[in-house]
Structures are given as structure tokens and as C-alpha cells.
Automatic annotation (TrEMBL), chains A, B:
It comes from the Bacteria. This is Dihydroxyacetone kinase. SMART domains: Dak2. Pfam families: Dak1, Dak2. InterPro entries: DhaK_dom, DhaL_dom, DhaL_dom_sf, Dihydroxyacetone_Kinase. Residues 366-566 form the DhaL domain. One of its GO terms (biological process) is glycerol catabolic process.
Length: 572, 572
């Protein structure tokens, strides 16, 4: 079980800071994840990987020379927000465009996709290649639906080696897709992992049993059997994979790079006992083994499981697989250590441009800044109360987290105002600062809210009721998709969605910015949520409340909406 | 728990073969462990590390350029035999002498010590430096009694970097001793590990509690408390270590290399969360941090625990710590990959010399060869029966293991005879072959028996009752010390010791080689052991029966003694 943590909702963020502290020669923290702290060749493609945290060395441990340029790091087992992905990609971008590559999970597909759109809008060429190596997660007919597991590594490695060698974005995309086509994995599990602070494991496999094809987050497997011997397991894994050799590869004489991966508590000696037999079986099948990897390469906290990956090589893939790499958790070959980036200079290069805005939008931006000031006053005045509410079902730090986030957001918004930003840009500065400084899911969610509203307002138009209403509704949808919460889960979604609906109804009726009416609806929703608080208690495992501190979040959102009423009324 | 294995008694050996299969570019299997598969600079000191298996990457994962030259690998949590250490050191020796360095455990101290004597006898300069970093295992006044834990790494690394740079054996010894003096560790544990096939963990810590100073094999700790937060644990570990800074190091401005080590199931993200705080605390204390290591560097199968090591650097130690290394589990800096050894040529270089022997001893060697032939016939004739007996309390493979070992021993003995070996050398050839080919503890024990008798017989003298009796008694003592079994544990010790005593009594009375009388005593002892077999059953955990398949071993030893009676009588 996972025993050592502080505030469970800060676990992923604290781990991110720790991995950077342990590897300053390779990693640099940027909002949303990490990038290399060494200089890459200008003009080369940046390979940006990522996904939920809890899978170390995926993903931050695979950033460094010869492997990824950056990793977007979400909360535990949760996709990073599109903002996090965007921020990391922006920092990793090196003039040659960006490849986003990651395991095929719905949340990741959505948020990396949104980030890609934002990058392209800013003129940064960006493509996506999904990893789909897990043969037990869908049939060959639906190969595109398969999940990505330890085969992530072969795709990341091949694409990154190609990028390092100066390939264009189109070439890197082709390499990544071909590496994915040539990669197949099969996994088994013996027990699930425990999230920090949870009373029990995320899932269980009955004692003495082995689940075949169980996903690394507990996604359903295909069957169950008794725990076999190490040799029997090796035989099972090899047989499954030899049964599905990718098209066009004659089995005899083929070259493979095997990866025998432990998920967390299947330890090294066990892996070596199994690998001993895997090695013999692959040789017996007439295969040539190229640079195998045996160890913990994609974990799931303390999950008990193991997977075998075969990467079927041709000359090009073999060259890319053998290419040197130097990351916190993955090294091969002789790497000449690259020049360290100067953090100050690097930060400067990350300075955001402010796109041109209309006079009307700059005025609107001024109004938004006032709204943020009121928001900060409201949060400051109620921080203790929010902490108290949060302590009922959460960790009691909601007030502190909100304060940290909104003060950072206000500061960034003032900078944007001073630089003549329009409403969208000002909200985007504020959103990034909030998500970055508040940390955790709650910070990311407020980033999503501000970004969504900003995108609806734009940098050119004056305030308009329909656009504002549409922005609030988009914020509701995006928060649900990001935080995995549905309406009725007693989270801030229960306030945000009816608030947006009410705004939209009124706007459709031509009632202007009907903030006051909608604010009443929001407050009713928050009260309904708050009433339930004592009944909810601390019983729900963290996994179910992936919004971090959701219930207090509903209350704080409704407070903020109410506090903004006089301001918004005044511009009605 | 450890779930994946075949025959539990073969687990360590199969893991050894697996780690070599996974890392052929770095490791080569030799009898008793592994050595580098790359060429080292001739004339440099060889650093040989080792200890029980179950601690990967200690010890095979730390063999390679810039780190150790070889690792002697015992059974799970059991010291390697002196023969294994000798064999690995012999293979690793590079013309500059050998440093044996390992954690301070009684079994290791004994067997590495015996190996050292044997190496020196053969003209190979050899020294020992013990690692004693665990501050909770003894007081500062008894610092030499402290155990070695994750601080192994700093001593191995500093000594190996010095050896790589061409230091003499005396210089490497001085570096290793100074690195040990400058290294302090403190560990905590949350639960014990499970040996393959055992029904329960080797030890437990009560749920929700943390044991301070608990050893990596469950050696008693110093106190127990509730599991703290990650930050509180960081504070505890740092405070303990800052409380015992090695002599002569002013705290402010000092340089340290921290190692935050996970024992097996405290996973990476937890380690990074803790390290984040450790890093801040060390900086707050005015220390400069040099190349920290955070990860799994010395494990104990699936033990839940963590330790912090501080290596207090001066200029020399910092240079050695920063030096490049390239091993299966430990890499830093830019390493030019060294030339691969040609396995055939390497095997040739390992060919053993046959020391000169007297005519009398060569004749005696002929008699020993006949004894080995009888031994082989006896084992072959009774292999099925031995398997059946072993199946009662063991894994049923005792017959097969004995056959594998004794046939290899006979073949090696014939080669020695053809090369004019004396009795000691012939038995030593046979012993090494048996231990190497039979594998497991039972093979190692027969190696100890044959070596002990050989050493008593020598290469110069004719057969003599006292010397033979002394050899058998030495075999009994050495087996007890190696296998951790005592008289009365119902193992082959219960046969070997009374047999030796009887021989000694008779020899003291001038009764010549009183084999027949002693053989009767041995048989009675074996019968007493065998009678208990059905009562012993499979209940005893593997850890308690560290002799592997002890009960069947008592029976086979007595069979062999009985079968030898006509031969030994004839030379009476």
C-alpha cells in the first residue's frame, strides 16, 4: 500500500517537485510537468509524453537526452489538463514542432487533443500518435481501441531517437506510428494498488489468482486463473504475443526488443526468473533478441503485476532502439552529456506573447480584472470557513489552495492588463498561473474554468450575454471531462452547470447578462451540496472524488458567483 | 508477496541466470556469481562485492564499468560460500589484487574471509573492507559492529572509481575505508518481505506502525511509532543523520551525496515526495547536495521500508562519487563502452592451474577419484528414492540435484587426475564443479564438504586417519556455519557431525581409518532424522530450513558413507 504522503491531494504535485529535486541535471519543472534541463538542438522536433501520475518512471523519468523532451503530468491516474499539456509542449518546443504521444485513454485523448489545437492556433506544428500496445484490451479488428501500457516506451524511444537525429515532424510521426504498429504487450495482475489516503486498494484480484489482461488502472481483464509458476507465466506471455505478430513480419529470424515490466511489487528477482525463461523461449522460436529491458518501466504505484512487450524491429527501428539515451530512469549507450540550460534564460524564453486585442476587449479585460479582484477578496475573507467545510469530507486545505491560486491568477492578470491584453489572453494568463501555483486538481479545475470562459470571450469582442453564457457552460463541460465528475456527484460541477444553464436560458430570452438570477440558482445548488456534507464524510476513496476537494469547491464557487453580482450587474 | 517462482530453492540461481540473460553486454555468469563481460584495464584492482540474493540491484546490478568487477551471489538472504566468493574473485582478478567489500554480516565476514585466505595462498593479494553504515544497529562506541545497508553503494562506488583510475590495492582499501567512515544510514520499515514459497512474511510490523532501525532481513530495530507523514519521515531521517556527522566534518558548508532508498514496495512517487523535503532540509542545514540517488538501490524482495544515507564528501570522495559508471542498475556520467570480453578466451583465462603434488598424494587422489565413482553410482541408484523422501518436506528434487552435482564433480576430478593433481586439488576441482552445476544450497554444501576434506588431506601427504577425521569434522563445522543449521535441526549436519566425531575418537585411539564404525553411527543418525520426516512435513518456512532440502540430504549422505565403506576399508 501507499503509506507515505502528506496531503493526498498534493501527492502527485509533491512527487513532481521531488523528481526534479533529485534530477536537476536532467529535469526542469515547468507549469504542468517537466522538460529537459539540457539544451536540445534548435529546430528539432520536441517529443512530449504524459498522462496521469503514479506510473513512474512514466512519465517524468523518461525525459532527457535521447528520449522525451517533456512530460505533462496529471494528478494520480488522471489525465493532465489541456492547459498542462499545452504549457509543457510550449516549454519543450524547440522550433521543429511537437509530437504529443501517450497511451490511448479517453481523458488523455481529449486533453492532448485540445492542447494540440491551441498549439496549432499559435503557429506551432503539432501532431498526435497514440500508443495502443495492450493486445488484451481490444481485438485485432478494433486495434485502434487498445490501451497503451508498457509499450509506451518503444514508441517514445523510437520517436525521440528520430527527433534527436534531426527528422522532420512528419518523419517523427511516421516513426512513432510504425513503432506502435510493431509493438505488442500482454499483462497480468495479482493485486491492485492503493492510492494515498485510501482505505483499501483500487481493486483486488482474489488471493492465489491471476487476472489476465487487467489494465494498469484496474480496467477489466479477459480471464482469471490460478497463479502459475514463473516458467508457466513466461510461456503464457510469450505464447500470447507470438500469436499476434504484426503483419508482414516472418517469425523466423525476426528481431525483437523484449520489455519485461514490473508494475510495482513484482520485484526484480522475480522478473529475472521469468525473463530467464522468456529469453530461452524467444530464442527457441528463432528470434534474435536486441537489448532487452527487464525492470520497472511503467508502474502503477504498488500494483502487483507484470507485462511482456515485444517490439518487432526492422533495420530502422533497431537503430532507433539502440540509440543512446540518458534520463532519470532510462539510460543506454554512450551519451555525451549536453549543455545545461540556464534556468533564467530558459524562463525568459518561456515568456508569453500577448496577441493584439481590440479596444473593446481590452476594456472587457479591465472588467475581468475587477472580477478577479473581487474573487480574491471573497476567497481571502472566507478562507477559514472554506477550510472548515473542506475538513468535513476533504483535507481542510481548500481555503489555502484557493488563496494560493487566485492571488497568483490576479498577479498574472495584472501583468497581462499592463501589456494591453484582451479578455481571452488576460484570462488565459490568470488560468495558467492559478493551475500552476495552486497545484492539485482544484487548481487545474480553476484553470479550466477561466480558460473556457476566456475562449468564449475572445480578444476582439465586447461583452455579450450569449458568449459569456456559452463560456460558463463550456467551463462546466470541460471540468466534467477533466475531473471525471458528473452532475449529482456533489462537486462544484453541481453549481457550475445549473449556473451556466440559467445564464444560457436568460441569454436566449434576450435578458442580457442575467447574472443575479443565475447566481441565485447557483447558491441553491451549493446549499443542496453543502447540506449533504456531513453525511458524505470521509468514507469515499480518493479515486471516486477525483476532483480533490469537491464539496468545499461547490461552496466557494457559489460564494464567488454571488460576490460578483454587483459588478456584473453594473455592466449589464 | 513474492508470487512468481519455480522451485523456491532454485529461485536465487534462476534470478542470477536471468539477470545475465538480460544484460549480456555488461555481465557474464561465472561459478558463484557474475563478473563484468567487458575488459578491464590490466593490472588494476578488482572490486568484488556480494552477499545474499534478494537485494537487487545489490549485488549483480552493481557490476560493470566504473563500479564492481564481480559479485558473489549467495542464496536468498544467505552469504555466498567461501568457494563462491573465491571463484568470482578469481574470475574478476585483473592482475592488481582484489578488494572484497560487503555489508557487515557474520556469515559474509566468515566466508569472504575464508576466500581471502585462499586467494592469498594462491598469490593473489586480497583485502577486505566491511560496510557499517547503519547507525541504528549499534552505538557509536561499537561502530565496528554496525550492519551494512544502502551505504554499501557509496563504498562500492568510491573504491571502484579509485580502482578504475589505477589506484593500488592499498590505496583502494584506504578509499573504501574512508568512504565507509563518511557514510551513515538510517532506515525504517512498515512490513516484511515474503520468501518464495513461504506462507507468510519473514516478519511483520503491526499495521499503521513504523519500525525504526529494523534491519533489511528483519533484524530487530530500536523503536516503533505510528506511520508519520512523508514530511515528518523526512524530518526524522535527516535529524537522525545530522545528529551523527562523522568526526572532523564541520556541518555548515559540508557536501553530501544523499541516497534515499526504497526497500521494495515503498514506490517511486512516495520516495520523491519524501526526497522533496529531505532536499529542502539538507539545504536549510547549510549543506551542498551532490548527485543524489533516489530509488531502489538495495532492496529486500517486497519489503516495505525506506532508508536515507548521507555520504559526507571531501574533494577526493566527491570526484570518486561523480565518476562515470555503467552497470545494469546504476549509471552516471558519460561512459565510453568498453570492449566486450570474448567468452571463449575468458573461459580459457579462468582455467585453473594444478599445483605440484607428491607421488603419495597423487596416489591418494586416485583413491578419492574411486570414492567419487562410488558416490556417483550410489546417487544414481537411489535418485528416485531420494526424490521421494525429499518430497515429504521439500521439493522432491534432491535426487536430481545430487545427480547433477556429483556427475559434474566426477568429471572435474577426472580432469584433475589426468593433470596429475594431488588429493586436495582434485577435491577442490570436484567441489567447485559440484557447487557450480548443482546450484542451490545443497550444491554449495557439497562443495563445502569436499573442499574441507581436501584441505585436510593436502597435496603432499599420504592418507592419514587423523587428517581424514579432522577434514570430516571441519566439513561439519563449515557446513553449519555456511548453512546456518545446528545439530538437531534434522539436516545432514545431524549425520555429518557424529560421523566426524566417531572418526576422530577412533583416530585418537590409534584405530586407523575407522570408517566402518563411524558409518554405522552415521546411519543411526540418518534413521533418526528420517523417522521424523512425516512429522516435520512442509510446515517449516523456507527461511528456517536454509539448507534447502536438508532431511533428504541426511539420508543421501548416510547412503554415500555406507557405500564407501568397502573402499575405505580396503585402504585401511
Amino acid at each position: 500500500m501507499t503509506r507515505l504522503f502528506n496531503d493526498p491531494s498534493e501527492f502527485a504535485e509533491e512527487a513532481r517537485l521531488g523528481v526534479v529535486a533529485a534530477h536537476p541535471d536532467k529535469l526542469m519543472a515547468v507549469p504542468g510537468g517537466v522538460v529537459r534541463s539540457t539544451r536540445s538542438k534548435p529546430g528539432t522536433v520536441a517529443v512530449v509524453i504524459g498522462g496521469g501520475s503514479g506510473h513512474y518512471p512514466a512519465f517524468s523519468g523518461l525525459v532527457g537526452q535521447g528520449l522525451a523532451h517533456g512530460a505533462a503530468m496529471g494528478n494520480l491516474f488522471s489525465s493532465p489538463s489541456s492547459q498542462q499539456v499545452y504549457s509543457v509542449a510550449k516549454a519543450a518546443h524547440n522550433g521543429g514542432g511537437v509530437l504529443l504521444t501517450f497511451g490511448n485513454y479517453a481523458g488523455d485523448v481529449l486533453h492532448f487533443g485540445q492542447a494540440r489545437e491551441r498549439l496549432i492556433k499559435e503557429g506551432i506544428p503539432c501532431e498526435i500518435v497514440l500508443v495502443t500496445d495492450d493486445i488484451s484490451s481490444a481485438s485485432l479488428e478494433e486495434i485502434e481501441k487498445r490501451r497503451g501500457i508498457a509499450g509506451d516506451l518503444t514508441v517514445f524511444k523510437a520517436a525521440s531517437a528520430a527527433a534527436e537525429a534531426g527528422a522532420t515532424l512528419a518523419e517523427v510521426v511516421a516513426v512513432a506510428a510504425e513503432a506502435n504498429r510493431r509493438t505488442r504487450s500482454f499483462g497480468v495482475a495479482f493485486d491492485g494498488c492503493t492510492l494515498p489516503g485510501a482505505g483499501d486498494a483500487l481493486f483486488h484480484v482474489p488471493a492465489g489468482r491471476m487476472a489476465l489482461g487487467l489494465g494498469i488502472h484496474g480496467e477489466p481483464g479477459i480471464s482469471e486463473q490460478e497463479v502459475p509458476t514463473a516458467d508457466q507465466l513466461a510461456e503464457l506471455l510469450v505464447a500470447r504475443l507470438l500469436d499476434e505478430v504484426p503483419d508482414g513480419i516472418p517469425l523466423n529470424g525476426a528481431r525483437v526488443a523484449p520489455i519485461l515490466n514490473g508494475l510495482g511489487t513484482v520485484k526484480y528477482e522475480e522478473l529475472f526468473v521469468i525473463y530467464r525463461r522468456v529469453d530461452a523461449l524467444l530464442r527457441d522460436a528463432g528470434l534474435t533478441i536486441v537489448e532487452p529491458d527487464v525492470g520497472e518501466l511503467v508502474t502503477s504505484l504498488d500494483m502487483a503485476g507484470v507485462s511482456l512487450t515485444l517490439f518487432w524491429l526492422d533495420d530502422e527501428m533497431e537503430t532507433l532502439w539502440r540509440a543512446p539515451a540518458n534520463t532519470p530512469a532510462y539510460r543506454k549507450g554512450s551519451v555525451m552529456v549536453a549543455e545545461a540550460l540556464d534556468p533564467a534564460e530558459f524562463q525568459q524564453s518561456l515568456e508569453r506573447e500577448v496577441p493584439g486585442a481590440s479596444e473593446a476587449s481590452r476594456q472587457l479585460a479591465g472588467g475581468v480584472l475587477k472580477a478577479l479582484e473581487i474573487l480574491v477578496e471573497t476567497v481571502d475573507a472566507n478562507a477559514d470557513e472554506l477550510g472548515r467545510i473542506d475538513a468535513v469530507a476533504g483535507d481542510g486545505d481548500h481555503g489555502i489552495g484557493m488563496q494560493r491560486g487566485c492571488h497568483a491568477a490576479l498577479e498574472a492578470a495584472r501583468e497581462a492588463r499592463d501589456r494591453q491584453a484582451g479578455a481571452e489572453t488576460l484570462l488565459s494568463f490568470a488560468a495558467d498561473a492559478w493551475a500552476d501555483r495552486a497545484g492539485g486538481t482544484s487548481g487545474a479545475i480553476w484553470g479550466v474554468i477561466l480558460t473556457s470562459i476566456g475562449e468564449a470571450l475572445g480578444d476582439q469582442q465586447p461583452l455579450n450575454a450569449q458568449r459569456l453564457a456559452a463560456g460558463v457552460s463550456a467551463a462546466g463541460s470541460n471540468v466534467m471531462s477533466f475531473g471525471k465528475a458528473r452532475l449529482g456527484d456533489k462537486t462544484l460541477v453541481d453549481v457550475l452547470v445549473p449556473f451556466g444553464e440559467c445564464l444560457n436560458e436568460q441569454a436566449a430570452q434576450g435578458s442580457g447578462v442575467a447574472w443575479q438570477i443565475a447566481a441565485q440558482r447557483a447558491q441553491q445548488a451549493a446549499e443542496a451540496t453543502a447540506e449533504l456534507l456531513p453525511k458524505v464524510g470521509r468514507a469515499r476513496p480518493l479515486a471516486e472524488k477525483s476532483l480533490g476537494t469537491p464539496d468545499a469547491g461547490a461552496v466557494s464557487l457559489s460564494m464567488i458567483i454571488r460576490a460578483l453580482t454587483p459588478l456584473i450587474k453594473s455592466c449589464d
